[in-house]
Amino acid sequence: MTVTTDPHRPAPIAPDNRHLVGVFAPQRDETDATDLPVTGEIPADLSGSYLRNGPNPRFDPIGSFVFPLDGDGMVHRVTLEGGRASYSNRFVRTPMVELEEERGEAIWSGLTDGYTPPASVVGEELAGTTRALPDINVVRHGGRLMAMAEADKPYLLDPRTLATLGTEDCDGAMRVGSTAHPKIDPRTGEMVLFNYILEAPYLTWSVVAADGTSLRPPTAIDGLDAPVMIHDMALTEKYVVLFVCPLIFDIAAVMAGGSLLSWRPDDGTRIALIPRDGGAVRWIHAEPFWVWHFANAFDNADGTVTVDYVEWTYPGGFAETGVPNTSGLMRAAINPTAGTINRTRVSERTDIDFPRVDDRLLTRDHQRVATVGKSDSDTGFQESLWFHDVAKSAEVSWSPGVAIGEPIYIPGAGQDYWGAIGTDPQDLRSRFYLLTAESPEDGPIATIDLPIRVPAGLHGVWLET
Ligand SMILES: [Fe+2]
Questions:
Q1: Model pTM score
Q2: Where do transmembrane segments lie in this chain (predicted)?
Q3: I need a labelling partner for 229 at 20 to 30 A (CA). Which of 265, 291, 293, 383 fits?
Q4: Is 33 a member of any domain?
């Protein structure tokens, strides 16, 4: 192939873009470091790794850049073992990253400007493609460690080196793609996932057995007449739970030069309860609201379903309605027989998200949910972790005074912990904080200095070794 420069290559994004500087600035170094400095003490019996993914453009982006949609994936790993800590990070090397590394600059643009590179620049195979974005989450299941994208196939990672091994479809269960937020049922070991697609039937769900084989190939979810964007899902022992909020892909609008996504509150939000045994989908209507993330869901003895999630007024960044957009931790009581949903706020905290529970309790009742939010002294960053006791409607918080990311529950031998990575917006140093699950408001029992800055990112997981 003769390499040419595309005269239509989009212009570089302004380097002072808010999401390309400070705690968001991409990290271009890849490193491995051992015996990291620790303040406090790492429990000697804690053995495992905290892994986290996030958008991290390999080269200065061109065309468009929307945080947190755009950017290449970078997986960060903090390993705790024998009271000591080590760190590694690697780019998720998609074909786009590999070709850009050959050329030394960005070739693909962001999701929203509509540019795709021609064959004269990237060859026939990659011509017309958009950038793969396995930068949202990292999941281990059925012997596979995967960097997850949204509505696309994940990339398989070498669990030892974090090297990228290629795309993965989980024995066909992710043949048409997957949400970045599949749910693993701790009771059965099954991984359940959904995927949205732009053509009918618009939504599918699949199941991967504990051993990594496909138990249910992509199966149509009946009841939709338009393509919708859905970011996360919930799972109970009986149901796959999808909240279908009215954010619609509008292909006609894109062809006319408009926006790809359209917020249509008149449609309301519809809840799909998909019986895991394969029965008919139950649809329940609610007023319009938006959900990025679920904490957990479970079945009750009377047949109702409880879902804890963070509810937003609308999807900020994708819909401008002129009214303030705020979020809160909610509990939905859904009656599949009566077709009703009753939503109640379980915390007065606003502007929170990234809800997590002890993953061992997925599909079953839980007492604690952790979220990330702003503190009362608003610095403009998410700088506080909130720990909600949903049984007692009480909450405590801890704020390191730095930009902090998603808290992950870490089961220990004697006691359990929460872990999170934060970056100081002043000196741009990143640290891993280990808090006890019992008294997280007391602050970290161990603070680990990371060898390089970890950009503000998205989701992760604790993997015991
Ligand atoms: Fe997410």
A1: 0.96
A2: 239-263
A3: 383
A4: yes
